[in-house]
Amino acid sequence: MNKLDFKLINICLVSIIFYFICKTSSYWLWFINRCIDIVLPIFLGFFLAYTLNPFLEYLERYKIKRFMGVIMLIIILIMVFIVLFCFLASTYKQFLSCITYMISIIKNLSFDSSLSLKLIKFVDKSIDLLSSIVIVIVSCFYFLVDFENIKTFIKKYVYKKSKIIFNYLKIIDCELFKYIKGFLTISLISFIEYTIIYLLLSHPYALLLGILSSLSNFIPFFGGMIVQVFAVFISLGLDQTLGIKVLILTIIFGFIDAYLINPWVYGKSNKIHPLITILSVFIFGSLFGFVGIIISLPVSIVIMTGLKYFHKDELN
């Protein structure tokens, strides 16, 4: 009886605390959001440095100093962006034509909205985005220069504290490397695959849709579906026969991607249940917006790998 009363008291206390947290959320939630806005670009800078570090390690094998390697890597990235910009310039007419077509559809549907207010919000968001990108790039540069020192410090500190967590971080490092390698491979395959498909169909927006198909991999599970629905919608508006062809091919190649290409690229690593992927997209998307959607799968890999590792450790 005493145990039952004690449990009831605990439940009541937790309920009261949760109630007050919900009621006072307007007073402290803004502070947490601001902290996230400040920390997130730095975190993304570290993640970008973590992604690029293997390339620097490759250059160091040829006795190129890290600082010079970082400079070389930045120059290479700038050159890649220039080439990519020139490449994307060829899709400008496609993009402009596509947007014009979408606007005409929206006007036909008679949506009533204040365009000027939306334009101001868009400019404001664009400035915030550009400032965040600058912070990401600058923090990434400094992280890359000192990455080995940071890595060594973390290894020594964690190893002294706990060998179990040290081994866990080694496994996480391996799993994330596999994910990044697989992600880049899948993105390249998606671009080549869908660009060729749309070119064979003589689609007027073939290159644009190929690029969007590649970028859709940033959004786990839903990205490909959103882009393909968009492609079918645009195609049906242009020509009914073209729309049906696009619909059939996107369904066929969607299954090929899901059941042949993705398992082949990722192999037996990074096996995340689709339900967990969907939940992680919704949870991280609601907490951190579009960036949360992008990082949802890597974070899920870290969490699921941790649960499996520590559960295995408890059994042993």
What characteristics describe this protein?
single chain; about 325 residues; mainly alpha; 11 helices; about 90% helix; globular
3D structure, described in words:
- With 316 residues, the protein is an all-alpha fold.
- The protein has helices at 2-23, 25-60, 66-89, 92-108, 115-145, 147-161, 163-200, 206-215, 223-238, 240-266, 274-315.
- It has a domain at 32-161.
- The chain has eleven helices and no strands.
Question: Briefly, what is this?
Answer:
The chain is an all-alpha fold and 316 residues long. The protein has eleven helices and no strands.
| Fraction in beta strands | under 5%
Helix content, binned percent: over 70%
The parts where pLDDT drops under 50 for at least 5 residues are: 109-113
Number of separate helices = 11
Structural class: mainly alpha
Q: What layout of secondary structure does this protein have?
A:
Blueprint: H1 2-23, H2 25-60, H3 66-89, H4 92-108, H5 115-145, H6 147-161, H7 163-200, H8 206-215, H9 223-238, H10 240-266, H11 274-315
